[in-house]
Amino acid sequence: MHGFDIIDASLLPALLIALSAGLLSFLSPCVLPIVPPYLAYMGGISMSEIQAGTVQRRRAMLPALFFVLGLSTVFLILGFTASAFGAFFLQYQDIMTKISGAVVTIFGLHFLGVFRIPILDREARLDAGDRGGSGLGAYVLGLAFAFGWTPCIGPQLGAILSLAASEADVARGTTLLAVYAAGLGIPFLLAALFIQRAMGVMNRIKRHMKAIERAMGALLVVVGVALMTGAFTAFSFWLLNTFPGLALLG
Predict the structure, then answer these.
(1) What is the C-alpha to C-alpha distance for residues 64 and 158, in angstroms, rounded to an integer?
(2) Residue 7, in any domain of the structure
(3) Which of 161, 167, 208, 237 has its CA at 20 to 30 Å from residue 57's CA atom?
(4) What angle is formed at CA 156 by the lines to CA 152 and CA 161, rounded to 5 degrees?
């Protein structure tokens, strides 16, 4: 309304998808299992202390916060870059969006088990050095995590980057990646806050990894098809027509 609008009805569907993609990234088979040892390492905590319930929340929370800031830094830079790239190639945006949609759909079919892409079944781990127990070390570990787990969380991240590029607006694209980072980072913070209970919950979730992977695949297929067909624009118009009050957002 005054030249500073970022969130409006047209961005809401993409924001919901970004949040869901971040949460599914946290629950993915190559992220969830490493959460307890990461939290223990970052806080300088032994697994026996966690199991005994003698850990002070501050010891786990502060490093977890710096870890989330580290991975968020990378995602925000990626969001800025993707949306700036989309703005630069604005004249080719339609064809680039369709290509991005096709790639994201292929990723989705991989997770649904229609076929397998070997590189997506691998993970590239970066060593952040012996920095357990420090805020700086946790921040560096967050940076390493964001880069090193790209083969695993890459399809979900790629889908959100495609949405950011299709926005062709730096502020809106960066906002999408900030929401994705929140979807991935907030569960880390909750796991640190309730570290002992979280271990039990995560052990139970591990039994449902196949269903989580399929949900991830279904989300990616929906995003890919929406990018190729322009469904996001159509859905945004439907939202405005159905809920006129949303127009006040933008």
Answers:
(1) 24
(2) no
(3) 208
(4) 120
- Residue 1 domain-assigned (yes or no): no
The pTM of this model reads 0.74
Residue-range definition of the domain harbouring residue 102 = 12-245
**147 CB-near residues (< 8 Å, 6+ apart):** 74, 126
Q: What is the number of structural domains in the chain?
A: 1
Non-local (6+) Cβ contacts of 102 within 8 A are: 224, 228
Longest dimension (CA), the chain: 60
Nearest to 126 by CA among 154, 153, 145, 142: 145
Nearest one of 213, 229, 231, 226 to 109, comparing CA atoms: 213
148, 98, 4, 72 alpha-carbon torsion, rounded to 10°:
-10
- Our separate counts of H helices and E strands in the chain read 11, 0
Residues 15-34 have a mean pLDDT of: 84
Quick: pLDDT tens for 117-145: 776 555 544 444 444 556 787 888 888 77
Are 67 and 139 in contact, with CB atoms under 8 Å apart? yes
Residue 104 in any domain: the answer is yes
Q: What pLDDT, in 10s, does the model give residues 206-245?
A: 777 788 778 878 888 888 888 788 776 676 666 666 665 5
The CB-side HSE value for 100 (13 A sphere, CA atoms) comes to 24
